[in-house]
Amino acid sequence: MVGHTQAADCTEVIRIRGVEKVFQVGEVLVQALRGIDLSIRQGEFVAIMGPSGSGKSTLLNILGCLDRPSSGEYFLGGEDVARMDDDVLSSVRGKRLGFIFQSYNLIPQLTVLENIQVPLIYQQEDLEEHRDRCIELGSLVGLSERLDHRPNQLSGGQQQRVAIARSLVNEPLMILADEPTGNLDSQTEIEVLGIINDLNKQGRTIVLVTHDEIVSHYAHRVIHMKDGLIDREVINEAQGVVS
Amino acid sequence: MISAHFLNTVQLGIKSLLVHKLRSGLTMLGIIFGVCSVIAMLAIGEGASFEAQERIKRLGSENIIINSIKPPEDNQQNASGNSFSVEYGITYKDVSRIQDTIPGVERVVPLRIIRENIRFDRNQESGQVIGTLPSYALVHNVDLVAGRFLTPTDEQFQRNVCVITEDLVRKLFPYQDPLKSSVRVKDSYYDVVGVVDETGSAEQRPQMGDSMGKAVDNNIYIPLSTARSRFGEMLVNRSSGSMSAERVELHRLIVRLTTPAAVISGERQIQHLLNHFHKKKDFELIVPLQLLREAEETKRMFNIVLGSIAAISLLVGGIGIMNIMLATVTERTREIGVRRALGAKRKDIIVQFLVETVVLSIGGGLIGVVFGIVVPLLVSWFADMKTIITAWSVLMAFGISGLTGIIFGIYPASQAAKLDPIDALRQE
Ligand SMILES: Nc1ncnc2c1ncn2[C@@H]1O[C@H](COP(=O)(O)OP(=O)(O)OP(=O)(O)O)[C@@H](O)[C@H]1O
Ligand SMILES: [Mg+2]
């Protein structure tokens, strides 16, 4: 639907060049991103770290097609995101990306199973057809006993697991997580990170924003941001780089 | 596939509405009242106009009724005390003139109507003594309950016989068989030969009604010749201390024409004829066919008024729904953001909120239909009024309620869809 770039690497999922983001707050212009170049390959586990206000969430939102850059290029799987209209962006988010938020963002009036099914609805999928798979996803995150519960009947860690299961239901290319363990205690954090790490081992690309050094043990690459720019990149030798 | 998907959306909508049961219920109230009042009012209106039309039809759509009325200038004369007795009204000559000169006239039946007390034993009722011909039964719907109507022999021999209305039987003869008795009017006795049911035929009722303001059917029918000889043509009226006398030959004529078409031309010709022979305006024409058309016109107006009331109440209900949905959209901005992040297009968000509004309004519509059917039933049960619930009023009210949901849901839904995913997600 959209033309390929000149230098499209077939294993390159994300490629951004010179991305800037400016917010206008009243009269004041806030420069959240000041020119980011970043490539992420298929199967990579990338962690983004940095001080508060350095632009991590802003970058992740742009990567997740929830927001558009003020300037710069963004190619997702070789396609120019700038040329996609709102409907196309919606289906890209629904089909190719999975989101995990810091505040879980489950839909309160739906049960665990129904929450997992929500992304299917927007791909016009038959819910009955995928029911077994959704139940399987529920047990993958250890919630097979709680499929009929509502979000407010679950602990934070359990809610985040529902969110993980939900992000997987459309078998996305890439999972984007903004401080997914920010509200969890360290024990639960390890469990949730374990699940995310397993997903990466199965071949899914992960981009994860965090404040926590523990995460760097799982990631292949840690990108440190500062004042809207990439400060430095650290390759994690222990994890090895997937090609 | 698509219908299963849609069903799912509806289910989801209901779930979201059930989160705030009280709020959803209160929101529906506007629509419930709107729909209920439309159906109920139409049912009551329909019932009333049906009764009116029935009454008019009983008058006979091929009849023209001519009443004697006291001309206004005579009242003035009386007040100044110049004249003791007044003479007005339809005469026997008019009867033969109409019969002989108006085309399409089948027969003319004259009536003398005298207000008197009717007694039996110690019971006494005020009512009307109506002197008429046996052919009255041919131009007016006479439901014989017992016995027979007046016959030509009764007329010929000026017999002291009468046919009496069922209402009067109930009051005068609580225990006795009326057919074996006679009633007394003034100093004469009349043998009861028949009983008729006149419920619903308004034109024979005394104009004033009883003390309760309710119309009564206290009539006795006697042969015209008998009425003439017993009561004469001079009626003395003692009211409020003064005494006045009226000379009226006939109080009413029922002119039966051959076809409804003849009624239209007949009315003009009779009017013309009577105007020619009467110097004073001492008669009036009642044309049931005309009344029927007027009743239909009235009903049409009534329906327009009702329609406006319905439109206003549904408008108010719709605004209520819109108000709540706008609040809901603000409240659920976060949810909208999440759904957008999970792949919902703007269109999906619109459909979601529109479905919720339509579920609200159609739910309200359904409940309104139930109440709209129950209320007229209660009204006819307790108020003894005829009500007719028409299928089209139910369908219309229900359809409009659904339409209200769509019209008033579009704005909140589009507001919801307009939000950028990231802005929506950032809302607390
Ligand atoms: N919608 C917005 N309107 C105005 N300014 C914004 C908006 N979103 C972000 N910013 C600004 O952009 C800068 C980067 O914000 P961002 O949320 O990306 O930081 P972050 O690195 O995620 O911080 P944290 O670690 O606290 O989550 C901040 O200065 C913030 O004030
Ligand atoms: Mg952030």
Give a description of the structure.
The complex is a heterodimer of chains A (243) and B (428). By secondary structure, chain A is α/β, with parallel strands linked by helices. Chain A has one domain (44-66, 90-238): P-loop containing nucleotide triphosphate hydrolases (Rossmann fold). Chain A is built from 6 helices and 10 strands. Chain A has helices at residues 56-63, 86-96, 112-121, 131-140, 156-168, 186-201; strands at 12-25, 28-41, 45-49, 71-76, 79-80, 97-100, 174-178, 205-209, 221-226, 229-235. In chain A, strands 6-7-8-3-9-10 form a 6-stranded mixed beta sheet, with helices on both faces. In chain A, strands 2-1-4-5 form a 4-stranded antiparallel beta sheet, with helices on one face. In chain A, strand 4 and strand 5 (79-80) form a beta hairpin. In chain A, helix 3 packs across helix 4 (131-140) and helix 5 packs parallel to helix 6 (186-201). The longest helix of chain A has 16 residues, at 186-201. The two termini of chain A are 27 Å apart. The relative contact order of chain A is 0.19. Chain B has 2 domains: 2-55 and 294-426, no CATH class; 70-281, no CATH class. In chain B, the strands form 2 sheets. A 6-stranded mixed beta barrel of chain B has the order 3-4-9-6-8-7. Chain B has a 3-stranded mixed beta sheet with strand order 2-11-10, with no helix packed on it. In chain B, helix 2 packs across helix 12 (346-382) and helix 12 (346-382) packs antiparallel against helix 13 (391-418). Chain B is elongated. The two termini of chain B are 36 Å apart. The structure holds adenosine-5'-triphosphate and magnesium ion. Adenosine-5'-triphosphate (ATP) binds next to strand 1, strand 2 and helix 1 of chain A.
